[in-house]
């Protein structure tokens, strides 16, 4: 703390900026840990329930049990579009429940794609900040170090002495900025890579679920 107090104004501003990056990054890390953990757990339970259930309306009535799963959003969108198509067919007294032309199953596929895109955006929210922190914090810290070393050498020139006792304190103070930059960057990079991997797994699950949902619709509803 004594070394921090003796640093110059520019280095202090750099350290405050890095502290902001670090605090926000840790907040995002804890938030995403909770979000991704809930999404994974809820998705596993939802898939188990989905394959055990016999009717879409029964599944739809139990979605509140899996509110943190992105798969429930896909199901809601797909099932909602299916209901709209059924209502249109009933109004026209058509013997087919769902047709396979552009006004039928393709509408459900588009609804599932929209829901998938929306959920990916939600899951990836704030990850850009982690990536930015991991990429820029070391350079911000390096800037503070370079500035601090420049100031230290300026003081050495003014004092006219280049002894270790004069040089070492200024260099040590300047290197604090680089150390804090690494402290801010390393957790951010690790968190970003970890969440990207977990989100890719969830995206794969969403793609698989969309495919299975469409297959069920085509097998059991189309052309009946």
Automatic annotation (TrEMBL):
Record-level GO BP terms: bacteriocin transport; cell division; protein import
GO CC terms on record? Answer: plasma membrane
Domain named MotA/TolQ/ExbB proton channel is located at 103-207
Instruction: Please give the InterPro entries that the UniProt record associates with this protein.
Output: ExbB/TolQ_transport, MotA_ExbB_proton_chnl, Tol-Pal_TolQ
Q: List the membrane topology term(s).
A: Multi-pass membrane protein
Q: Where in the cell is it found?
A: Cell membrane; Membrane
Query: ATP-binding as a keyword?
Result: no
Question: What family, per the record?
Answer: Belongs to the exbB/tolQ family.
What is this protein called in UniProt? Protein TolQ
Organism name: Geomonas paludis
The lineage is: Bacteria, Pseudomonadati, Thermodesulfobacteriota, Desulfuromonadia, Geobacterales
């Amino acid at each position: 703390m004594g070394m921090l107090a003796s640093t110059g104004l520019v280095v202090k501003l750099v350290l405050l900026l890095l502290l902001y990056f670090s605090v926000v990054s840790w907040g995002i890390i804890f938030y995403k840990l909770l979000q991704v953990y809930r999404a994974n757990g809820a998705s596993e339970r939802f898939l188990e329930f989905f394959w055990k259930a016999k009717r879409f309306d029964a599944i739809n009535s139990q979605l509140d049990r899996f509110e943190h799963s992105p798969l429930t959003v896909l199901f809601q969108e797909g099932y909602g579009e299916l209901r709209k198509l059924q209502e249109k067919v009933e109004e026209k007294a058509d013997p087919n429940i769902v047709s396979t032309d552009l006004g039928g199953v393709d509408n459900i596929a588009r609804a599932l794609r929209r829901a998938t895109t929306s959920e990916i955006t939600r899951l990836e929210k704030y990850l850009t900040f982690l990536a930015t922190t991991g990429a820029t914090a070391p350079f911000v810290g390096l800037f503070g170090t370079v500035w601090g070393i420049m100031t230290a050498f300026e003081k050495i020139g003014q004092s006219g002495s280049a002894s270790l006792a004069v040089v070492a304190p200024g260099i040590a103070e300047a290197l604090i900025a680089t150390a804090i930059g690494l402290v801010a960057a390393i957790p951010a990079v690790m968190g970003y890579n970890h969440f990207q991997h977990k989100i890719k797994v969830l995206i794969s699950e969403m793609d698989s679920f969309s495919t299975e949902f469409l297959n069920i619709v085509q097998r059991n509803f189309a052309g009946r």
